[in-house]
Amino acid sequence: MNIKESNRAVYRTDAADNRGFTLVELIVVMVILTLLAAILVPSLLGWIDEAKGKQYILSARSVYMSAQAIESEKYAVWDGTMAGADHSLTDYDKERILRMADAEDAQILDVSFESDSLSEEGAASNHGYYTINGIVVQYGSITVTLKDGMWTVIQ
């Protein structure tokens, strides 16, 4: 056996025994994965919270549109007199709104109207009396508000 053949035999023996990773390599990989997780997890949680907020806003918009539909019904049957005008939402109206919006887990806290007074000029000029321009809806500890055309979620 010459020197070249003996070196090959040694080399082949070392390669056959070296099948796994060293402890240092494994630790380096674990540190890299930990750093990536530390960077990505907070941003993923932020995306989840943002998505939940959007879900609450969509549900509150459905409540708002249902409330406006109820008020439009009242406006349609209004006789045009001051005595017959009523744009307040009763508990029965709120229950109908939440059923219509498929939001039985919600609670309507407040509704504001475009106008709180009637003018003597007739029904057409009093449409704002029945037009909702703000609403506050609560889902457990989450409150969603529409004010001045802006939706906000308060947790």
List keywords for this structure.
single chain, 155 residues, alpha+beta, 4-stranded antiparallel sheet, 3 helices, 17% strand
Describe the structure.
InterPro entries: N_methyl_site, Pilin-like. Keywords: Membrane, Transmembrane, Transmembrane helix. This protein has 155 residues and is α+β, with helices and mostly antiparallel strands. It is built from 3 helices and 4 strands. Strands 1-2-3-4 form a 4-stranded antiparallel β-sheet, covered by helices on one side. Helix 2 crosses helix 3. The protein is rod-shaped, with a radius of gyration of 33 Å.
Give a quick summary of the entry.
This protein is 52% helix and 17% strand.
Count of alpha and pi helical runs: 3
Radius of gyration (Å):
33 Å
Tell me the total number of β-strands.
4
Order of helices and strands: HHHEEEE
Largest sheet: 4 strands, antiparallel
Average pLDDT confidence is 84
Question: N- to C-terminal separation?
Answer: 81 Å
Assembly status: single chain
Overall SS class: alpha+beta
The helicity comes to 40-55%
Strand order of the largest sheet: 1-2-3-4
Unreliable sequence segments: none
Task: Tell the overall outline.
Answer: rod-shaped
* Percent of residues in beta strands: 15-25%
List the helices and strands and how they pair.
Elements: H1 3-17, H2 23-77, H3 91-100, E1 107-113, E2 132-139, E3 142-147, E4 150-154
